[in-house]
């Protein structure tokens, strides 16, 4: 379903744990120091591994950033899918679960996200669009049983608006803050969505 992140994924459990440690460290460095402080050495120090261990898996920091983005997209797809499976019945429950799942994922990348958008390769852009299409189709499938009086086009527009708003907020919240926490943003966005759907 997903494109490869530009490196060979580990097969053994121990290697997978090591990769997860490096990705978590990379996300932390991006979120706390931004791209200016993002170096292989700083990631290695935070992960508790050697610089050489990272270079054995990645060619450099650009490939590591690409892997972080890939990890974010996987988290987004999994988080949305799990949230929709557990959502209360009804459109409000579906769209609330969807919006909160997106907010939860992006809340961990607010400082790193602008860097993940910069200089994307064609493969990275395609992977990002694929993930957005995947979560859009997931929420539409979950909402489908409740679309008696609401068109699928209206539900699709609502889903795309939520996605666009979340991505934009993650990219700009440090330079253009709205004064809301991510959960408060998700609550307000859900209510705005329901107002729109009820009027459609």
Automatic annotation (TrEMBL):
Domain of life: Bacteria
Short name of any one Pfam family annotated for the protein: TetR_N
Stretches assigned to the HTH tetR-type domain: 16-76
Keyword DNA-binding: yes
UniProt signal peptide: none
The keyword Lipid biosynthesis is assigned to this record: no
UniProt entry keywords in alphabetical sequence: DNA-binding, Transcription, Transcription regulation
DNA-binding region, residue intervals: 39-58
The name this protein goes by in its record: TetR/AcrR family transcriptional regulator
Organism of derivation: Kibdelosporangium philippinense
Classification lineage: Bacteria, Bacillati, Actinomycetota, Actinomycetes, Pseudonocardiales
């Amino acid at each position: 379903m997903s494109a490869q992140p530009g490196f060979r994924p580990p097969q053994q459990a121990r290697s997978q744990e090591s990769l997860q440690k490096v990705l978590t460290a990379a996300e932390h460095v991006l979120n706390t120091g931004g791209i200016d402080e993002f170096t292989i050495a700083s990631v290695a120090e935070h992960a508790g591994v050697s610089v050489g261990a990272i270079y054995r898996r990645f060619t450099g920091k650009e490939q590591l950033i690409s892997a972080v983005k890939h990890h974010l997209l996987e988290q987004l797809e999994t988080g949305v899918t799990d949230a929709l499976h557990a959502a209360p019945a009804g459109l409000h429950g579906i769209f609330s679960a969807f919006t909160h799942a997106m907010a939860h994922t992006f809340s961990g990348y607010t400082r790193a996200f602008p860097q993940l958008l910069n200089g994307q390769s064609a493969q990275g852009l395609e992977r990002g669009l694929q993930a957005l299409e995947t979560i859009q189709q997931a929420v539409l499938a979950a909402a489908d049983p409740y679309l008696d009086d609401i068109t699928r086009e209206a539900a699709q527009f609502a889903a795309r608006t939520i996605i666009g708003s979340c991505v934009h907020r993650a990219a700009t919240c440090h330079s253009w803050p709205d004064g809301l926490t991510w959960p408060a943003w998700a609550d307000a966005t859900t209510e705005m969505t329901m107002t729109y759907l009820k009027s459609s």
